[in-house]
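INTERNAL TRANSFER SHEET
From: sequence group
To: structure group
Subject: NAD/GMP synthase domain-containing protein

Please process the attached sequence and return the structure record in the designated field. Keep the field labels unchanged so the import script can parse them.
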Amino acid sequence: MITGENLEEKKERLVSILKSYNSLAIAFSGGVDSSFLLALAHQVLGKKVIAITAVSPVHPARETEFAKSFAKKRNIKHKIIKSDEMDIAEFTANTRNRCYICKKNLFPRLLECAVKSGIKDLAHGANMDDLDDFRPGFMAASELKIAAPLIDAGFSKQQIRELSKNMNLETWNKPAMACLATRIPYETAITIESLKMIEKAENALIDLGFDSCRVRHHGNLARIEVLPKDFKKILNRENKEAVIKKIKEAGYLYVAMDLEGYIRGSMNRDLRFEI
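Return from structure group:
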């Protein structure tokens, strides 16, 4: 990571990296990082940039709709492809290498889509913070030589948010989002039913005003994570009754709240002493 640089200097480094490409496809989820990378790449390369978004049951539908809206608003060419990770037994078995298996399958499909559009290079939105967590998907990206311009330029998540705000991107304060499979404990099979339960339950929480939240899936028990600052809000009588009702409507029998609150990557705790 480069030290001694202010944000604008770091942005110029990223611009220089992007200028080195004749054209570029961005693996675009609609999240904070890929949205920033896509917006800046579009400023630098114009119509030589395309966004590619994968759609499947593991990706929240509201994120896909946001991605479509973000690209359309900026007149960025946007490709939607279907991914088939739910047909891969190694993925649905939900081992610790789940993310590696997913990305090893997905990135070649994104590259194929890019090549059909006349573009040979693909980039994803990994940042420096991703190097501090268990991220086997990043290993797959490295093996397949998928570019990571935000890491090459030394960007942290907070720096991406700051520059996104400076660029008037609506994603600057958007809550972090990961695929729905990350809500299921390792070694517990991933099913369409469980993914639908999780998505419906999280949508209910978001609609009630809890943007930074997770519903961790433990069979018929939903373990809710919200920010500690939202504890009082979620436990007031009206909200508590609404949450219980909506979570049970999603298919759960029991509703619990994690007293530690929302913690990014909390399902990786069991692995940290193994890797």
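Handover comment: The mean pLDDT is 93. The domain at 180-271 is CATH 3.30.70 (Alpha-Beta Plaits).
Transfer complete.
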